[in-house]
Amino acid sequence: MSEITRVAVVTGGTSGIGAAISAALQQAGCKVAAGYVGNEEGAKAFHAKTGIPIYKFDVSRFYECKAVVEQITKDLGTINVLVNNAGITKDVMLHKMTPEQWNDVININLNSMFNMTRHVIEGMRDQGFGRVINISSINGQKGQMGQTNYSASKAGIIGFTKALAQESAGKGITVNTIAPGYIKTEMVAAIKPEILDQIVAGIPVKRLGAVEEIAAAVVYLVSDTAGFMTGATLAINGGQYCSG
Ligand code: CAA
Description:
alpha/beta; binds acetoacetyl-coenzyme A; seven-stranded parallel beta sheet; 14% strand
């Protein structure tokens, strides 16, 4: 990493893929703030283990995000790395889906992109440096039965990334998407075992991904050497979906 101090915020940063990202960025020399909303005990345990400060806020609420960005800026400095990782699933076929199941997923997975990035982008533009990394999904690329809400939100992230990358390139800011496949997390563990077996059988490498395999890509995107990569979608999915 270069002389520019990286101050990173990772939403959903205390569990699953997000926890691995927070830890890897800390290891790479960033000052890291990890966001969480529900699992207080898990977040405290993560803090106790890593020393990474934790912040409780809801990424679907614009002004809560504003307040926490201001607090983190006071505590750690101007935020120049944002990892929009927080996300949920509410899997159900569309013909049974409620407006709540639709709206919750869109608000948390997609509207969060605006709610968080809006508050850090001006600081990055002023600093002439920034890294925004948005965590999408293989299911935003290929679609997935039972996930019209999730697939729509994750596909939306890819469009958001490409547009913001073009807006920001002249200001030293890169904006990229990572689209993980099925990774060994609690989210994936919640899939019915017989369906999960079917999914793993369809992954050419014949296993779930590891959280560290996503975190390593984030560390790369945050580095100076990744300065020429922007607007890209990194598909890390064991060959399950080979996108162009
Ligand atoms: N791949 C292949 N077949 C699937 C499937 C999948 N992902 N999901 C469901 N099916 C099949 C089932 O095997 C079943 O087939 P049969 O009728 O031949 O037995 C059929 O679809 C209906 O499935 P259910 O009996 O489970 O029907 P349901 O109405 O109770 O539930 C469902 C439907 C909501 C789609 C449920 O099956 C489900 O949750 N599937 C998993 C969906 C999924 O892959 N979610 C990913 C979560 S992890 C994640 O999102 C992280 C990420 O970014 C990758």
